[in-house]
């Protein structure tokens, strides 16, 4: 059959995109399972991670940190506000700016989520240093493909602060 040679550049197993896709689906599925206990979806967890680190924050900055546009982020934030995890408020100096802040309930959820990075790290079967190398390589791929020379996560203070997956 044509295309079954492992050296064929069009062989499915030779595709970087497919390896990334399947790994992403596997990890997102793992997170979905783990996050059920917290009542969060994976995108909501990502929002919480940013807010646990940078609370409060303008929606525009939150979107930049997560690489999400406001059209995607707004319904997500509305559901999270309805769940009592955060509040949204207009800026006092500029009403076009919407700020997002954690509620007490949203802040308390952080403690319950504390073991998630460790659980994910264990599930990968990779040592911590290999995970850090992988994250660095993926950040490099993202910057190269998008042409973005800036840090892909502009709110992250220092790469050394990013210890867990």
From TrEMBL:
Main location (coarse class): cytoplasm
GO BP annotations, alphabetical order: response to stress
Pfam families: Staph_reg_Sar_Rot
Taxonomic superkingdom: Bacteria
All copies of domain HTH marR-type, residue ranges: 13-143
InterPro entries to which the protein is assigned, alphabetical: HTH_MarR-typ, MarR/SlyA-like, Transc_reg_Sar_Rot_HTH, WH-like_DNA-bd_sf, WH_DNA-bd_sf
GO cellular component terms, A-Z: cytoplasm
Start and end residues of each stretch annotated as Disordered: 142-165
Compartments where found: Cytoplasm
The keyword Cytoplasm is assigned to this record: yes
Keyword Hydrolase: no
Signal peptide (UniProt feature, chain positions): none
GO molecular function: DNA binding; DNA-binding transcription factor activity
Keyword annotations: Cytoplasm, DNA-binding, Transcription, Transcription regulation
Protein name: MarR family transcriptional regulator
């Amino acid at each position: 059959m044509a295309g079954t040679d492992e050296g064929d550049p069009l062989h499915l197993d030779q595709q970087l995109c497919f390896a990334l896709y399947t790994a992403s689906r596997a990890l997102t599925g793992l997170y979905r399972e783990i996050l059920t206990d917290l009542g969060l979806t994976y995108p909501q967890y990502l929002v919480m991670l940013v807010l646990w680190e940078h609370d409060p924050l303008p929606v525009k900055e939150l979107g930049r940190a997560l690489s999400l546009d406001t059209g995607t982020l707004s319904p997500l934030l509305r559901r999270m506000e309805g769940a009592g995890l955060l509040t949204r408020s207009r800026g006092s100096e500029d009403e076009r700016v919407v700020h997002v802040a954690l509620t007490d309930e949203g802040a308390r959820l952080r403690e319950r989520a504390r073991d998630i990075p460790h659980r994910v790290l264990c599930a990968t079967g990779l040592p911590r240093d290999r995970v850090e190398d992988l994250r660095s390589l993926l950040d490099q791929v993202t910057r190269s493909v998008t042409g973005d020379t800036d840090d892909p996560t502009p709110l992250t203070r220092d790469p050394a602060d990013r210890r867990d997956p």
